[in-house]
Design a protein that fits this description.
5-stranded parallel beta sheet; Rossmann fold; 5 strands
Length: about 160
């Protein structure tokens, strides 16, 4: 599904204000939660990761299509991209390389059920963090917090 839509949090922030538009890029930076884009060809995985991150206070968008993710990155939608490695049409490592071209400051977290040595080496070469699936909520949050340099605002539910 290369033309998959963004998830339910695509154009709004879930930080207490109902469907509040974010406005100008960079505006209200100190009051907004860091924005995270989750990319996985499995919508269930997208929703699970998004739910964990939203409960921790992050603003999250998700998509099952790397092409949609690239459009969102080009629009400067986020501070962090969390991407599955094994996806149809574009591998997460390819997505990470393209993201780095668009915005070298953007942090990348790769997740994979096949986190072998080759994938680990590719992640290191891309200056991306790699986590092996399945991922516990607290491990995902710790990685995201480390990459964004911010502590979690809430504990994730077990």
């Amino acid at each position: 599904m290369d033309d998959a839509p963004l998830g339910s949090a695509a154009t709004r922030e879930r930080t207490g204000d109902a469907a509040r538009e974010t406005g100008q890029p960079g505006a209200e930076v100190h009051r907004q939660a860091p924005r995270i884009l989750v990319v996985d060809d499995d919508p269930v995985c997208c929703r699970l990761m998004a739910d964990v991150l939203e409960r921790a206070g992050y603003a999250v968008e998700w998509t099952t299509a790397a092409t949609v993710a690239m459009e969102r990155v080009a629009a400067r939608c986020c501070s962090l991209v969390v991407s599955d490695v094994n996806m149809p049409h574009m591998l997460g490592t390819e997505l990470a390389a393209e993201v780095a071209k668009l915005d070298p400051r953007l942090r990348i977290l790769l997740v994979s059920a096949f986190a072998d040595r080759r994938t680990q080496a590719e992640a290191r070469a891309l200056d991306a963090m790699l986590l092996a699936k399945p991922i516990r909520a607290e491990v995902l949050l710790a990685a995201v917090n480390a990459l964004l340099g911010a502590p979690a605002q809430e504990e994730a539910a077990p």
